Amino acid sequence: MRAEESLIEVFEPYSEGLLKIEYNDYLEVYFYFNKAETAKLTTHSYSGEFKGIFATRSSDRPSAIGSTIVKLIERKGNVLKVLGLDALDGTPVIDLKPIHIPFTEEKLNEVAISSRKMSPRKGVLSNVWTGRTDLLLLDAAELHGHFCTGLALGIMMATKAMQMIRNTCEGLDSLSVIVEKNDCSLDGIQFVTGCTFGNNKLTLNETGSLVMILTKGNDKAIKISLRPDAIDYMKQESPQIKEFIYSPGIMQSANSQFARLKIDQVFGLLTLDFDRIFEVMEWPV
Fold first, then answer.
1. What DSSP designation does 10 have?
2. CA pair distance 152, 163, nearest whole angstrom
3. Are strands 211-216 and 175-179 parallel, antiparallel or unpaired?
4. Separate counts of helices (H) and strands (E) for the chain
């Protein structure tokens, strides 16, 4: 939502209050969470942490009032075009106020670094909960060294498993993963879940099959495996994908004539029908 432009319509009886609002670069928007669930005092934040409601931006608040800072792009009559409004379409706006951003870019970077120190995987988990597998693939490639189908498949599997298991747990510290294939997908799975060989949360039981099992203590398990006809489906949607699946060396050639095509194909995998590629099983442990 933060990356999208939105329109705020001010009804005619209040339109006079918009006089000279366009002189401001930023506005604080107050709105009513009209589609929120029952109020909670504790909830999961986007980073996966279990917190008190007043330590999060969750919509399930006792007051049902939200606020956010947006950039004002333009005004056309009683309609404002803004950037960064994290509210659903049709959300009632209660009030608008101009605001002056007091932070320099250096200060904002300092705040971001401080936040990462307190929650080092906050950015990763935020992308997991919102399904931004494209951003996860970009970041995971820094660890993996290149883009490939294995890395993309691992990210798809792990993201789905994390989204499913989150509903059953109060935290992420008791997660563990079992995988059955030692290939590029491992880096994607480790990056997304945070379960690695280094922290003893990842176990490899080599069978040669692309399978991962994510467990939360003794409460829940999610098993995701590659369907037998998944490769045929991927080749059908992207005819050139066969080259990249069976010739990983081509992925490492920066000067290859296929360089741009290979990247497009790999990112294209993320948009395919998940259920046509993977089989998902969920059961109590």
1. P
2. 17
3. antiparallel
4. 9, 12
